[in-house]
């Protein structure tokens, strides 16, 4: 028996039979002793569901849910509704963890810290070198400081799996269902519920990059759901964190610029017209945007050009990339 709080580890599973054993093994082997592992088979057409069942037969901490395919957001929500833990964690089913990850993150959750995160390492294999947390640099932030870093994509980023959350921060917040993008609608709200947040410099989560993933495919209209998420985040900040509104608007403007670059490379005809209309609606919401003097010169230039003519600026950037003057 242990007095440590239960961690509910949420794992949506879909078409990952090549990687799933390694993923589950890395969770089951955690040094933190009090886990439940919730595997949600999202109607996977391969052998992933059977792999989940085999693990449940040999490890009593594992519960398996089989459901019709509805996407990762719906799968995570199924597990969240069933989770019994005081602490919540997420793992993507083709990734894997350093054995001490949850013990390390839980060790940071003191003195009012409600969310702790580590660094994510990108990999294409099963043996990414990772840290055990010894000697890691720890940064503790209040809510607004952490959300500022979140907007900058510096720390406390939108990716859920490198974090450990108190259940009270998640509350009744759930992932949107049926979306290509769901993390961006979820993370800022949960971060906003935390009293304090801790970031560890230790790399303890291995994110497996796959060429076939949604973010590696040609740009699509569904990718513009990211703009919807950031519009909702902006409205949230306007109501609760007005000091972050300018940074959120600037980030949204540059996100529109990146989206236009992607759309120009991949879309045409009616789809391109729909993308233009959507991005113009965003520009109407956030511009004109006054730019403070202290903004770095390169960012200031991009913000000015994007406001003046978003599509022309995107075309210029794409051209500079094509002739290798930009990366």
Question: How does this model look, in words?
Answer:
- By secondary structure, the chain is of the alpha/beta class.
- It has helices spanning 20-28, 48-58, 72-82, 101-107, 143-151, 167-170, 183-192, 225-240, 245-266, 269-286, 297-308, 310-322, and strands spanning 7-13, 35-42, 62-67, 87-90, 96-97, 113-123, 138-142, 163-166, 196-208.
- Strands 1, 2, 3, 4, 5, 6, 7, 8 and 9 form a nine-stranded mixed beta sheet that branches.
- Strand 1 (7-13), helix 1 and strand 2 (35-42) form a beta-alpha-beta unit.
- Helix 7 runs parallel beside helix 8 (225-240), helix 9 packs antiparallel against helix 10 and helix 11 (297-308) packs across helix 12 (310-322).
- The chain is globular and about 60 Å long.
Largest sheet features: 9 strands, mixed
How large, in whole angstroms, is the Cα Rg?
Answer: 21 Å
- Beta-strand proportion: 15-25%
Number of helices: 12
Low-confidence spans: none
Helix content: 40-55%
Q: Helices and strands, in N-to-C order?
A: EHEHEHEEHEEHEHHEHHHHH
* Average of the residue pLDDT scores: 96
Main traits of this protein?
single chain, 327 residues, alpha/beta, nine-stranded mixed β-sheet
Question: Quick summary of this structure?
Answer:
The chain is an alpha/beta fold and 327 residues long. The chain is 43% helix and 18% strand.
Topology, element by element:
Layout: E1 7-13, H1 20-28, E2 35-42, H2 48-58, E3 62-67, H3 72-82, E4 87-90, E5 96-97, H4 101-107, E6 113-123, E7 138-142, H5 143-151, E8 163-166, H6 167-170, H7 183-192, E9 196-208, H8 225-240, H9 245-266, H10 269-286, H11 297-308, H12 310-322
Parallel strand pairs: 1-2, 1-4, 2-3, 6-9
Antiparallel strand pairs: 4-8, 5-9, 6-8, 7-9
Helix pairs in contact: 7-8, 8-9, 9-10, 9-11, 9-12, 11-12
């Amino acid at each position: 028996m242990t007095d440590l709080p239960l961690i509910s580890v949420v794992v949506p599973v879909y078409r990952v039979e090549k990687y799933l054993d390694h993923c589950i093994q890395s969770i089951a082997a955690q040094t933190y002793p009090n886990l439940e592992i919730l595997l949600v088979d999202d109607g996977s057409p391969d052998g992933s569901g059977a792999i989940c069942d085999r693990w449940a037969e040999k490890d009593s901490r594992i519960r398996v849910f089989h459901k019709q395919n509805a996407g990762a957001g719906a799968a995570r929500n199924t597990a969240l509704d069933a989770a019994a833990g005081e602490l919540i964690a997420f793992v993507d089913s083709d990734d894997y963890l350093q054995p001490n990850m949850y013990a390390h993150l839980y060790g940071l959750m003191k003195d009012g810290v409600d969310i702790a995160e580590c660094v994510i390492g990108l990999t294409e294999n099963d043996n990414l070198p990772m840290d055990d947390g010894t000697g890691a640099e720890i940064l503790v932030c209040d809510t607004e400081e952490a959300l500022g870093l979140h907007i900058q994509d510096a720390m406390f980023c939108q990716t859920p799996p490198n974090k450990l959350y108190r259940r009270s921060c998640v509350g009744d917040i759930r992932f949107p269902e049926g979306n290509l993008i769901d993390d961006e609608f979820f993370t800022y709200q949960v971060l906003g519920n935390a009293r304090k947040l801790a970031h560890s410099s230790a790399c303890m989560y291995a994110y497996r990059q796959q060429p076939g993933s949604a973010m590696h495919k040609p740009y699509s209209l569904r990718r513009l759901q990211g703009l919807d998420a950031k519009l909702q985040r902006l409205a949230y900040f306007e109501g609760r964190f007005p000091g972050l509104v300018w940074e959120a608007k600037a980030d949204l403007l540059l996100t529109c610029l990146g989206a236009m670059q992607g759309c120009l490379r991949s879309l045409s005809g009616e789809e391109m017209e729909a993308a233009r209309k959507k991005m113009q609606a965003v520009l109407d919401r956030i511009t004109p945007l006054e730019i403070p003097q202290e903004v770095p010169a390169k960012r200031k230039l991009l913000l000015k050009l994007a406001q003046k003519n978003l599509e022309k600026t995107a075309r210029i950037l794409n051209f500079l990339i094509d002739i290798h003057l930009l990366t």
